[in-house]
Amino acid sequence: MRHHFKLVILILAGIGIAVIFWLFFKLNSQKFQEVCFKDYCFEVEIADTPQERARGLMYKTSLKENEGMLFVFDKPGIYGFWMKNTLIPLDIIWLDKSKEVVFIKENAQPCLKENCSVFKNQKPAKYILEINAGKVKELNLKVGDKLRIL
Questions:
Q1: Which of 67, 42, 144 is closest to 98 using CA atoms?
Q2: In what order do the strands lie in the sheet with 40-47?
Q3: pLDDT higher than threshold 80 for residue 129
Q4: Which tens digits make up the pLDDT trace of 108-120?
Q5: Are 124 and 74 within 8 A, CB to CB?
Q6: Cα-atom radius of gyration of the chain, to the nearest Å?
Q7: Distance CA 94, CA 109 (A)
Q8: What is the pTM of this model?
Q9: What is the pLDDT of residues 67-89, one digit of tens each?
Q10: What contacts 122, CB < 8 A, 6 or more positions away?
């Protein structure tokens, strides 16, 4: 009987350790990068898998002033973005493979209904940056500006 009790305790301890390692890996697996336009930098979460790109900033209730998300695609293309289940207004910036701005959608508003507008670039883009609405205007960003990824 006592041997079974020790075995159960060892199994539970092993499961507990496995859960702690899984949580540690999960919490530290988010990828962050600093990106800059001129002298203004953003701390961005990188979304470079289909799952991360599909989730995007859905359900986030806020971003700090210098936070955002950088979507990275395998190859340049026309990528539509919508605000489905996104709770904060965003500026969306499409960048080509050389990180030059090719299209900007300012002040994209949250969409909690079924049919949301889709915003698309006209020129191929490899990166899309989402930041707080109003930042494009505040920083005077325009097509042709270059993003630096540090």
A1: 144
A2: 101-108, 90-95, 125-132, 67-77, 40-47, 32-37, 147-149
A3: yes
A4: 999 988 899 999 9
A5: no
A6: 20
A7: 17
A8: 0.79
A9: 999 999 999 999 999 999 999 99
A10: 78, 102, 103
